[in-house]
UniProtKB/TrEMBL annotation:
<dbReference type="InterPro" id="IPR002347">
    <property type="entry name" value="SDR_fam"/>
</dbReference>
<dbReference type="GO" id="GO:0050664">
    <property type="term" value="F:oxidoreductase activity, acting on NAD(P)H, oxygen as acceptor"/>
</dbReference>
<dbReference type="InterPro" id="IPR036291">
    <property type="entry name" value="NAD(P)-bd_dom_sf"/>
</dbReference>
<dbReference type="InterPro" id="IPR020904">
    <property type="entry name" value="Sc_DH/Rdtase_CS"/>
</dbReference>
<protein>
    <submittedName>
        <fullName>NADP-dependent 3-hydroxy acid dehydrogenase YdfG</fullName>
    </submittedName>
</protein>
<keyword id="KW-0560">Oxidoreductase</keyword>
<dbReference type="Pfam" id="PF00106">
    <property type="entry name" value="adh_short"/>
</dbReference>
<dbReference type="InterPro" id="IPR057326">
    <property type="entry name" value="KR_dom"/>
</dbReference>
<comment type="similarity">
    <text>Belongs to the short-chain dehydrogenases/reductases (SDR) family.</text>
</comment>
<feature type="domain" description="Ketoreductase">
    <location>
        <begin position="7"/>
        <end position="189"/>
    </location>
</feature>
Amino acid sequence: MRDWKGSVAFVTGGGRGIGLGIARALAHRGVSLALADVDEESLASAEEGLSQVTAVRTYRLDVRDRQVFEKAAGQAERALGPVDLLFNNAGIAPYAPAAELTYEKWDLALGVNLTGVVNGIQTFLPRMIERRAGYVVNTASGAGLVSDGNVLYATAKFAVVGLSESLRHDVAEHGIDVSVLCPGPVDTGIIANTRTASAGVAVRDDLVPGVEAFLRSGPSIDAVGEMVLAGMEKRSPWIFTGYDVRPHLEKRTAAILDCL
């Protein structure tokens, strides 16, 4: 089993949801934490709890802002040491029917869910390559492997999966590992959080109860945090949180092969 003690992790979306679950799992393994989130109240709450276990620094960060990302990275490394574990986890759950799509909705959905991941990679990867060590975990979704009608979400999440798979091949020679987290339903507040975003990409009011019930049917954020660390121990290319996606993935794969 890998000894993570003494490592430094940078976690976007680290104040709540899956990011907080990952942070808790890391803290109990002696990892120092740099947590970034747009929600300062959640960051304060996370810091209060986690600082009793490990060293913690928090940064108010919109992952679309490259300058602030770079600034937060520098501050984190000066305070805690070189970041060798990067978790590009911040995300929203956007939705809009095709007939209601706008450039503004595309910009928000891709900006947070895809460009935010790119910004994290581009901020920290050169440092990791120079040190010839590191681990990157990008949060995608089961919807990044099997699409439904939510084109805003699927587009970004498919891209994160492809980015992660390609990056894994490219950086192995530099001593860096890459995994992509493809969660199914997880008991988080992502629907409520997305509804605070602009550009009208929130799930329709009448659909919210059903979607939230579906998410609550999944594992807790702490259980997912442990799954992520277990996947990293195995250096798994893909990390899943359940078997929900399997029948859909089998059907999609068979359909692709039938088209060859």
